[in-house]
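User: Hi! I have a protein structure encoded as tokens and I'd like to know what sequence might fold into it. I'm fairly new to this, so please keep things simple.
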């Protein structure tokens, strides 16, 4: 009898795994480049300098107000500062002609966005921890503090990146970025003084401030809705940035 030829079992497809590995390598390479770029142009020094000023101010604040003041400082310094820094980074890259290489770069728009968001969020989170360690003598729930500042910084960095793609110069960026910055920062500042509105509570600035306050153990701390709002805003910011970025790169070259 003739042996029946068995068909070999199909091998599992490896393409998705390989693609994921390549994407991770591209992201990590972009992240390392972004960190070097930010160090080269003194962004780390700026964060350290501004944070040092805030720490010095916090040390002389009366004890009963320290945590409330610290929550505002962390909101305005580490968390939201990335919104303005990312504009400078985008325009520096544009001035150096780096955007002209986008057409031949293997980097995907979302990988570029995440690299910028993560690199600046790391600095923001480190600055927030430093402020708490030196200004509040370590009185905080660090896990929730890290989560709030990292997520919030990512949101404002991505929003700033989207706005920066419309800017023609640094002055133009400051002009067009100021309205959203005010829009997002005024509600949490009002909330500090007990003035709130349901609309203001769903904005990322207010949710971030409540997340920070929660980590510092103040009565203004938010609950699970705070994290849901921050997560939703991060998703929205990433979605619109991913849609906008390819158009922002068109033309490349120098500004």
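Assistant: Happy to help. Inverse folding works backwards from shape to sequence: for each of the 255 positions I chose a residue that suits the local structure. Here it is:
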């Amino acid at each position: 009898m003739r042996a029946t030829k068995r068909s070999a079992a199909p091998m599992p497809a490896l393409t998705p795994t390989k693609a994921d590995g390549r994407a991770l390598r591209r992201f990590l390479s972009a992240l390392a480049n972004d960190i070097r770029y930010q160090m080269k142009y003194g962004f780390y020094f700026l964060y350290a300098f501004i944070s040092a000023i805030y720490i010095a101010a916090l040390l002389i604040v009366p004890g009963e107000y320290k945590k409330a003041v610290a929550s505002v400082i962390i909101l305005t310094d580490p968390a939201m500062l990335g919104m303005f820094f990312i504009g400078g980074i985008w325009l520096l890259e544009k001035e150096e002609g780096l955007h002209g290489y986008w057409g031949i770069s293997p980097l995907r728009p979302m990988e570029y966005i995440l690299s910028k968001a993560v690199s600046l969020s790391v600095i923001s989170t480190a600055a927030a921890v430093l402020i708490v360690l030196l200004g509040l003598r370590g009185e905080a729930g660090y896990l929730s503090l890290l989560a709030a500042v990292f997520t919030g910084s990512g949101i404002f960095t991505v929003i700033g990146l989207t706005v920066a793609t419309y800017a023609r110069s640094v002055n133009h960026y400051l002009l067009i970025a100021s309205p959203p910055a005010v829009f997002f920062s005024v509600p949490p500042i009002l909330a500090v003084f007990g003035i709130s509105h349901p609309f203001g509570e769903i904005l990322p600035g207010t949710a971030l401030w409540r997340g920070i306050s929660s980590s510092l153990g103040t009565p203004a701390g938010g609950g699970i809705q705070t994290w849901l709002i921050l997560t939703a805003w991060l998703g929205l910011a990433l979605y619109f940035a991913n849609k906008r970025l390819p158009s922002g790169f068109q033309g490349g070259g120098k500004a």
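A useful reference point when you look it over: The longest helix spans residues 66-95. Feel free to ask if any position seems puzzling.
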